[in-house]
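Hi there,

I know you've been waiting on this one. I reran it after we fixed the sequence typo, so this is the corrected version. Both the input and the resulting structure follow.
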Amino acid sequence: MSPCLLTKHVFCRYFRTVSLWTSLEPASTTVDAGSAATVRLRLRNTGDVVDEYRFVPVGEIAPYVTVEPQTLRLYPGTTGTVQLTFAPPRTPDATAGPNPYAVQIIPTEHPEATTVPEGNLTITPFTEIRAELVPHTVKGRFRGRPKLAIDNVGNTTLTASITGNDNGDELSYDVHPANVQIEPGRAAFVNATLRPRQLIWFGHKQQRPYRLAVRRSGTTPLDIDGTYIQRGFLPRWLATLLSLLLMLALIFLALWFTKAAAVTSQATPQASQPVVTTLPSPPAQPSATPSETPSPSPTETQAEAGGGGGAPSKPKAKPKPDTASVAVTKLNDKDPGRHVCYRAYVADIGWQHSVCDGDIAGTQNEGRAIEAINIAVSGSRATSANAFIEGVGFPGPWKAAKEKADMTVGKPGSGQQLDQLVMSLSDGVICGNAFIEKDQWLGKQCDHPGGSGKWISVGVTGKTLHLEAFQLKMDNMDGVDN
């Protein structure tokens, strides 16, 4: 037995050795997205001190790895086993193909002697697409122009072609682009133009069902049904107006000929009457004196001119802009306390109206990105925020604003998409939730006092998934439950 095991002399600590043997069984494994697979990690304490080991998964698939148990205590010369469970979700984030991973083994007694065994996890590919016509029903006399939104919710690149057809061969189809290639987690929009083969000159509108098909090699096509409503070339109101004009013209002609006939019948008896030799004198015309013609008074003249006799009217005050500061000030006047109001600058729409305390700002399932966010709070001395812009990152230092003052992050009208909003308060708790690019609500998050960071992140970074809608609420999670 080593003398250092029998004494507590400080000198002996320098002769103790720290060593660890590890083995992943198997070193490579395969798992289906949405399923689970396990790997056994064996380790032996080859040193001469008792130590406790902590296990931390690292790598891109670390969020999908669970270690059981999370810590293991081993005596010198003994062997232990932990189980690694891999459960990648059935989402585009679980990238198909080989994914290297590693487990960091950290000894409690000697953290500097960390060991990192490495392995490989292969995630099998899966394909899943969703398609929707926007709008589902289109109207027109000569053409209809629907859009087909195609979402690739699988974990492999989607390649497909788009065709159109209908049962009666009543429409022709112009699809652009006719072929698409969509990366996992992304969407593509296809413009379709429908043209009727025959025009409707008069009569009621007709419904013509049609179908766009998303075709992939070796699979059954995905059919999306829609309706094209074809209107008549001449609208009904115009046909009604022409009928009325024709009827009025006939009535006018009838009255004209009737009057002409009556004048002719009166000419004969007048010719047989005796001729009058003396003409009657014209009747006297009443003369008007200047005094009988009343002149308008100055007051009446001013009244007719629209000026009135009173003082000139004051110009109306301009309404206040619909900013978050105005909204939170009004809300705090009615209900003093902690409130947060906000609005979003949405691509192709512009600034929306301000909403408060858990209401939804932005749009959902429309593919419209948020370019800027305007926020104001009450009940907190100050607030600060920043935004992660796609392709740019965090553009600069955090923005800050006092209570009831406007704070704007992002660049409205620039076309730069926001992926994430980061926010904190000087007093109280802020909670939030985010809807990410035609996908789903991520889940509520709060900066509870005493937590690490004292800020919340609404959205995701590094995945090119822009922010479409969000909610904010102060002090509690009520109303932030999507």
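Quick highlight: Residues 66 and 384 are 35 Å apart (CA to CA).

Best,
R. S.
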